[in-house]
Structures are given as structure tokens and as C-alpha cells.
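ugh finaly. both done.
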Amino acid sequence: MIKLTRVDYRLIHGQVAMSWTHALDVDCILCASDAVAKDDMRKAALRLARPNGVKLVIKDVNAAIEALNSGVTDKYSLFIIVETIEDAYRLAKGCKDIKEVNLGGTRKSPETTLHPTPRDLCDRNRCRAYPRACERWRGYRNPSGSQ
């Protein structure tokens, strides 16, 4: 049974190893990442970070989808961690049992980072890109006076 699917580029670290694992009461962590599955050094580091009493499985995304859909993971209380939003999307699209994704740490890059300013949120054309943030700034008055 899948308890949580989380995006976190750090994969297994203190918060995941201690807080999430205990709060979710999981007995298996599935790390689904094409990059990690090919990198022996990263796999060794993840094995060292694995909490005691919790099984760790590292698979590429396609193999993880196959395992989740085949039912071999059903006997586990499963915490799935992926490195990127793209990996999470592929996993969720390929596995019907993933209903939601928890967004943790993502790598900062120009393609994945949006920093709307109050001016962006007051400009009707720019505001379409940030609908939730616009609601928060509803009462804000743009100092330049433009709408």
C-alpha cells in the first residue's frame, strides 16, 4: 500500500529518514529515479542513509511502475521518493494507485522557478500565470498605478 509519494531531490536525508518514515509508519522506501539507478555511488550513499528496520528499493522509473502495477509491492507499507517533478509525473501517469504527490525539495533552475512580484500579480495579463497568488494580493495597490 502506497502511503506517500514525495518529490525531494535530496531523496533520503534526515527529515525523510526520521520524520516522514516514522509519521507514515512505513516499512519500505522505494526510490524511483533513472539517474540514481545508474549511479553506484549514489545508491551506496542512499543505503547508508536508510533508517533501521526499513527496506530500501532503488529502481528506475519504468521498473518502479512495473513493480507497483504488478502487485509485488502490495505487501509493504510504501513510501515512494522521486528526485524530480518529471519522475513523479511519469510515475503517477503509469501507476493508477498514486493519487497525490507531496512536493518537497526541488532543484532551483530558471525553468522551474517562478518569483512573481506584486507588480506581476496586479497586472491582469501577467496574473493569469499566478492565479492562486493573485487571490492573496487582491487588495494590493500597484505603486506605479497601472493595472
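ok and the 2nd:
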Amino acid sequence: MSKWLRSFCRKMIRRYLPFWKPFVRTICVTSFLSFGLFYFKDIDSVLYLKFVYAVLFFVVASYCVTRNSKFSTFYGLVFGTNLIIFLVRLYQMGYWLSWDIVDIFFLSYAIFLVAFLLNVPLSKLLCFLKLQKKCIGKSENDYRNLFSERRYDLNLIANYLRKYNVIGVESKWGDGKTFLFELLKEECKSKYFFVKIGVMSVTTDIVEKFILNEINHLLENENIFSLASQKINNLLSSQNSLSAVMDLLLKSNSYTNQIDILKRDVLKLSKKIVLVFEDIDRISDKDAIYKIFSIAESLSCNYIKIVYQYNEDDLLAVLKKEKIYLEKYIPYTMKLTPISFRKVVKKLCKCGKYSNIEADDFQFLQQEILIPKDVSTRIEIEGPISLQIPSFSIRKVIIFLDSVENYITSQSGCDTKTKRTIILFYFIKHFLYDVYNKISEKEKFLDTKLFEWEGVFYSIKELLNDDYEKRNLWTLERNKQMLAILLLFDFEFEPILDANGGYSEN
């Protein structure tokens, strides 16, 4: 029961302390100053209330113009706390019975203005007290609020859309491309109709029909009925190969005419259209990708914008083409700003989701690691070294943190050393899969062949025991990373070195 209670208390503190901390600090400082003002000096109550009313009126007027909630919250707390201590002091001095209508008038208005200013924090407080999952979930997933990099990316995409008709957004899987466009859709809904096209479910035979049907559906929703899309579908229905479609595009005026008619129908809309093609790099059929490029090129104009989301390396691998080929169809591209592993972990650990892990628990992964002198001499490497961690996708880091949190929870907590071992194990599992794949229950980790040179793999045991030249091993960064992982596991190397500097089987 005591473990459960401690865990619950830690969870509540981590979840609500960031919310309460600035409020409590403001209230404490204001209370201290108010006690000094009212208990050590006589204050004329009417004059004080007139002053408070005047200042509050100015603050409320400023808030109505600027809508600065932090400004209103601060002054609301200051004057609210000040008023409470003022009323307590009056009550102690027995002045209540001598109040006239003027006193009550100023006090009522002052209380009303404080209540108005505190409207914002009170609404937040209700959200927290109700423990709404929606509120907590937003803090976990809203990358715009979590990361300044995503706000920059959002503004850059909006700027690209204003300037260009076809753009590409590149990033790794799980970096938040789809979520970013949901935010963009929300912020730019007065300027654009966003049509999201999930190309994963589209086959080669129906690519054009699928895209045209999505546009036609939008037109019908806006009470615009176009015959052009149906005529284009009829033209395409008899074409069964990519070459036939290309021939149709080049030689038949009827197709291009109908495309122009469809574009004129789109021009009748009150807003521009943005066609968003999600994850085109995940389409295994390159002919389907060619068809998407072809129809999108025909449709793109100032009022039909095209956006492709993809990972460039994966897309080029599917197409088996060079990057210069993509530039014909996607002339303007931007990459989502990479976010460091350390920053992602730090921000996610503060969102209130995790009760058993903190950002500080992961600091050891990026600290410099000292190599024991005997080991360093034997394997011919100079220290210290460190684990070089690249930027991983946000989704991948979330899965990693969830795995660590779930395991620690299942163990009902653990000490610092055990927690580090758990973190390191799941780090290998999620980010160093080739190493994880080599780990076997039948083999000691020190016997696992992690180090590679000229196509041959070695274990740390072999490196410590053999006499061949080892200095060249460390020209490969991967070998340094493997050594860093072994050292982070805190293996004791000294006891297994014999008197001659070799590896002892005991």
C-alpha cells in the first residue's frame, strides 16, 4: 500500500507541479508583501479600494485589447490575494460595521474585476481537476506546443504554400508530418480546402479516378457540380497501361480540355484547394507513383496546390531514380527540422504521462565514458568516448519511453542502477536493432560479436585476448559505439584480465 501511495503522490506532483508552481510563488510573494503593508501600517480603506479599482480597470482594459492571458493571470492573482488579506485585516480590526455604500460599491467592483482576470486560470484548473484525458493527451501529442522547431516548420510550410504550387515535405516516419498538417489545416482553414489523399489504399488502375473523385466530392459539398471529372474518368476507363495514359495526355485535346474545365470549376470555390499526398514513399508500385506525379502536374496551378509527404531515401529507392528526377515533379522541398534525442526525451517526460521515469534518468546515455586503463591499453584505444545519439523520430522516442515506463511499472519501481540497465536495453532494442538482433539468451553479452573490421566480426573477449593490431578498429565510429554500450552496462573488465594483459576465462 505504501509503494502505491508513494507512486501516486509522485505522479500527481509531476503532473500538476508545473501548473501550480508559478501560481503558488506569486501568491506567496504577494501575501508576504500584503501582510507587511496592512499589519504594520494603517491604510485608509476607501482610498485603498479606489486605487485598486483604478489599477484593475486599467489591467482589464489592457487585457481586452491584447488578450494576454499571462498578464491578466498575474495581476488577477496579485490583487486577488491582496484583497483577501485586506478583508481579513479589516475583519480583525472590527471595521465591517462602519462601512458605507461607497465602500461596498468599490469592493464589489474590485472583486468582479479580479474574477474576470482569473477566468483563464480557473478554466485551466477545472480541466486539471476533472482529469480529462483530452487535456493530457493534447500535451503529449501537440508537437507545436512541445517543440519550437515544429512551430517554425509550420510557418515555413504555410509560407511555401503561399509562394509555390507544388511542394514536398521530407522527414522520417513518425516525425509528425500528418499531425503537422492537421495543425496547418486548423490554422489555414479560412484560406484553403485541404483534401487528404491516402495513397496507400490506391492501386495503379484507379489512381487518377481516385484523385478526381476526391476533388469532385469537395465541389459537390460546396454545391458546385462539374461534369468534367466524370468525362475524364470515362476517357481513362479504357486505358489500362501507363504508356496509354501518357499517349492520351500528349495527343488528345479532349483530356486536356476537360482538365482545364475542371480547374475552372475549382476556381468557383471560395478558397483554394490543397491536395495532400501522404507517404507516397510507402507505395511499392512505382507505376502508381508515376501516375500520381502525372495527374498532379496537370492539376497544379495557383488555386490547386499540391503537397507531397515522403522520406526522400525511401522514395528514390522505390523509383530507382536519382534525386534530380524528383526535382522535375517536386521542385520545392523542405525537411522537418531535426530535434535532438535529449530534447525530445526532456519535453515528453514533462508532459505528465510518465510517473516512473524523468528526463534526468536518461542523462547517462550522453555523458563521456572513461575507459579502464588496462582495457584501453589492451585494445589500443584512447578515451574518454561517448555514445553518439542521432535525432530519432518523435514517434519512435515515444514508443521507447513507453516501453521503459511499462517495464519499470511492472517491476514496482527499481533502483538507479537497474533503471539504467533497463533504459540501455530498450535503447538497443528500439534504436540499434542490428545489435539487438545479435543478442542471444544462450550467449553472454561479452561473447557477442559486436565489433567489425573488413567484414569480420569480433567480441570484446577476442579483442582483449588476441595480439593482432586493433588500432584500425576504432577508425569506424560504429565500433566506438559498441564499446560505449559495453562500458555503459558497467561490466567489470579488470577481474577478467590475466597478469599478461589477456582475457581470463575465470
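summary for the 2nd one i guess: The first strand starts at residue 166 and ends at 170.
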